[in-house]
Amino acid sequence: MTKDSPLLSGDKLALLEMLLMEEGLAAEAPQPKPVRPPGAVLPLSFSQERMWFMQQMQPDSGAYNVSIGARMKGELNLAALERAINDVVQRHEILRTRYEKVDGHPLPVIEETAVINLALFDYQHLPLTSREDELAQTVYDFVKRPFDLVNGPVMRAGVFRYSPQDHVTAVVAHHIATDAWSSFILVQEIAALYQSYNENKPIQLEPLPLQYFDFAIWQRDHFQGAVLQEQLGYWRTKLAGVPVLEMPADRPRPAIQTFNGNVVEHNLSPELLQKLHQLSKEQKVTPFMTMLTALEVLLYRYTRQEDFAVGVPIANRQLASTENLIGTFVNMLVLRADMTGEPTFMELLQRVQAATLEAYAHQDMPFEKLVAEMQLDRDMSHSPLFQIMLDYINVPSPKISMDGLEGDNVGVNRHSSKFDMGLIVVDTAQLQSLELEYNTDLFDEATAVRFLDNLETLLEAIVANPRTPIDELPVLAAAERQLVLARWNETDMAYPREKCLHQLIEAQAERTPGKTAVISQNQSITYQALNQRATQMAHELQKLGVGPDVIVGIFLERSIDMVVSLLAVLKAGGAYLPLDPAYPLDRLSYMLADAQSPVLITESSLNLTEALTKDLPQAIHVYLVDELPQNGRYHSNNGSARTATSQNLAYVIYTSGSTGKPKGVQIPHQAVVNFLLSMQKEPGLSAEDHLLSVTTLSFDIAVLELYLPLITGATVTLVPRTVAYDGHQLAQNIASSGATVMQATPVTWRMLLDAGWAGDPDLKILCGGEAMPPELARDLLPRCRELWNMYGPTETTVWSTTRQITASDDPITIGHPIANTQIYVLDKNKQPVPIGVVGDLYIGGDGLARNYRNRPELTAEKFLDDPFRPGSRMYSTGDLARYLANGEVDFLGRSDFQIKIRGFRVELGEIESALVAHTAVREAVTIVREDRPGDKRLVAYLILHEGVAQPD
Ligand code: AMP
Ligand code: MG
């Protein structure tokens, strides 16, 4: 808004600045003249109209009460006080006015006289211990109680007696009759009159030049025609299309805004304030402008919005004759922020200065009139035009002292907030503080406290180096930083770091040799037999050259043989590469070539081996698992085959690549061991459990399904692919297998429910690979023993966070990091974002893959140095997330085009390169490019599962 604003000439600028700093001084403007035709219907001023309207909206709310209170020590003359108050009421007709409602419109009726009875609340009789609380509660009720605008009066006064020499005095009026400035006048006049009555020396206050309704008449008269058009023209242009500022809230916005609120306070150090003044002076701006700029930066960093508005109350007493009037004059200036172009703080400050001065030049426009004239699409869930207010108070509140009484101002928290948030900066010689009023429908107290803490951190950084780009200024206070970086990442758990996966299984086989380890269709195998067969096969594989970091392709259907083969590869010291026979052949041979596998384990019934291996660059030995002698001499010594260390690879899994070619994620044993031992604790698995495994080996979550039971002494039943894709058959298998645990993607769980699966009260459900829709959670929860949301990319070993879902979870989160794992939610400068704010999700810790096979650049791009744990790495997931205040991580989608099909990752680049080879999908991709996620899914599904990616 500022870049193309006309330059203000020096003089005008100086004048405006003066106006700004000493708001309220008289300017040359037509003076309202008290011309009031007798019997004429009086109009409400614009702001009165709004106050009235707000009260109609929420008749039971005290949000629009304005109060002033003081605790006074000394002898209080109640009679003198009551007379003084009533004199003031008599003097200002606005305090004697009530508002009848005629045809839905307010009609002000001025009473000739109105009597305000000074209410006395006496607490002397109460025990000292409860006095303070009782008093606070009554004062609160007194201040908060709504006014009856129809019958009046619109003001009340009370005295709360703590002891004979100790009282709280409070005067409360509806905002339709007063404002903050008016409170000053009120206090002064009451004090003067009190003294005169107390000392019996009658005084005459200076007569008022006019009454409030004279101003209202003048305002109505003034704001029409050319004046209105000029002002309106300016503001219309300035505020056209200003977006709602959506601060990250703790709860969703209710359809209708309430004024339920609260306030938190934060000490503002005089040193910091002094530095802010210094900076402002150097930059020739007011401290208010510096504070507004800082607030805008904080809001920007919380919301990432570059465009929003902040409301600023101004006293609006430019007319000298209104200076001593009680009434509602305060106006709201709407200052639009422009955060574009990555400015430094200093650059932004200049923008804010220009914008503010310009706005001040147009400050007469009543906010209410503006809202009405702009014909905004009135959404009742938030205040119009701006949602955050900044009130910079640099005029001290009046010292309340009345004839021998010394008073201390008492602020009463009215538990209301007119806006989403209102920042009140008190910058006076007596008091320096930050207060935040916040809507309690949206925000928790802790959130408000953190906001102020963060504002302070930001201000400190600004004064230290105002030339910092606004994106780089730190915004997290030490406590919050510690919480998100350290406290919520305290996941240390001891585990055998030197052990390999197969060693854990071997140890289990020794503990429970006779127990059934694996069941597949009509076959089963005990722990001992499994171990022995695998050992024998491992020896044969070693003879073929399998050893540490040698990758062996596994091209098998799901069977006991498959499990034996996996274990054999590991025992031989090698790592396995899953090759799902259902995948397109060219994709499989690409992986085999990229992995440089010297050995392929397959079975005779899969007679695709020839096609799979014919174009490979490397020589490959095809090992047929079904020709392994079922009887014969087993090598029983596990040890002889033990050649890998925990740093060697356990498996390589290919995931979709953005360049169109899948990339091999290389996972070492240590990562798998850490993962499994963490899972054993949470979600938890015991030897009594029976896990039904439905997932293809090419999806890394099969690691949990196969090995978690085998290191625990539980039993795993493999279901064939055809069953896994058929809801009815799967439901039957869950029942017939006696499963107590099953893991699957949300798609599979939905498929089961759609097939009429009734659930199983003994079943623990692990669901992951894609976001868990709330409806799915709702449908699954009553149908199972436990429901867990599991989150994690292949690159950090299967799952990196977990959360047991309960019926009250809203939103459904991905929970907290698993053992020895860190989660970071960072901004584009790799700085942690505040709680509640969306950022990029990074994962650190022991689950990290070694690298992408043969892809050093991609590895460097995705596996970064962990800035918070020197010497460690973190993986950049491409996921978006935020922290909830309770430390849970809320997944919010992707920052790129990656999508999921049945839990499988597909990157856009891959879809596109597939197109080059296949015309049938080409048209669909035009749609993909228009970024229609539903169509993207369809295309990706075709490519992955129907094999259409092969050339036609
Ligand atoms: P993959 O490497 O196939 O495991 O895919 C990892 C990606 O799947 C993550 O980066 C997320 O985008 C997504 N993902 C996995 N689990 C979840 C979950 N529980 N909720 C939301 N997204 C998930
Ligand atoms: Mg995963």
Brief overview:
The protein has 952 residues and is an alpha/beta fold. A hairpin with a 7-residue loop joins strand 33 and strand 34 (873-883).
Say which molecules are bound, naming each kind only once: adenosine monophosphate, magnesium ion
Strand content: 15-25%
Separation of the first and last Cα atoms: 56 Å
Structure summary, number of beta strands: 37
Assign the structural class, choosing from mainly alpha, mainly beta, alpha/beta, alpha+beta, or little secondary structure.
alpha/beta
Low-confidence spans: pLDDT under 50, at least 5 residues?
Answer: 1-28, 631-635, 923-936, 946-952
Mean pLDDT rating:
89
* Oligomeric assembly: single chain
Radius of gyration over C-alpha positions, nearest whole angstrom: 37 Å
Number of helices: 28
> In which order are the strands of the major sheet placed?
16-15-24-23-25-26-27-28-29
Largest sheet: 9 strands, mixed
**In percent, how helical is the residue content?**
25-40%
**Shape annotation:** elongated
Kindly describe this structure:
With 952 residues, the chain is an alpha/beta fold. 35% of the residues lie in helices and 21% in strands. A 9-stranded mixed β-sheet has the order 16-15-24-23-25-26-27-28-29, sandwiched between helices. A 6-stranded mixed β-sheet has the order 4-5-6-1-12-11, with helices on both faces. A 6-stranded mixed β-sheet has the order 7-14-13-10-8-9, with helices on one face. The two termini are 56 Å apart. Residues 1-28, 631-635, 923-936 and 946-952 have low confidence and may be disordered. The structure holds adenosine monophosphate and magnesium ion (MG). The site of magnesium ion has 7 residues, from loops.
